[in-house]
Known about the structure:
It is a single chain. The protein is α+β, with helices and mostly antiparallel strands. The chain is built from 6 helices and 7 strands. The strands form 2 sheets. It has a 5-stranded mixed sheet with strand order 2-1-3-6-7. Strand 6, helix 4 (109-126) and strand 7 form a beta-alpha-beta unit.
Amino acid sequence: MSGSSEARLYSFTPETLAALKKFRLGTSRASKPQAVIYEINKKTQEIHPSPSEGSDTPTIYTDLSTLASELPPHSPRFVLLSHPITLKSSGRETAPYVLLYYLPPTANNELRMLYAGAKELMRATAGVGKVLEVNDEEEVEGVKEVLEG
């Protein structure tokens, strides 16, 4: 980790760092989209996967509509996404690994600042090449078209 102010403000547990690496390495050959929602604990400033209902392990979403419906209406989230696509320009198949920065317009300023401050650290720690800001369910569901160019 660098000595940046973001690295001092926000933290990842060793388990979260291991999960980030495993997810990144495991998604490149997937035939369906793979996505995990991450959130920030406001008290501890720890970035971690959002827990699944009734389970300690995070849900891996394989459908953008389901993913979109699981995002909270008034709170930002980070979503790591690997989505297999066919590039329109070359016809080549690829699976870009991106960070969706979900920022609903109704999020309060405190949460907006919390997530804005952690965005670059999350991008760097997760090893994604691109950050896409999305504001609502419709934009999440349209990410495939954005990625295809």
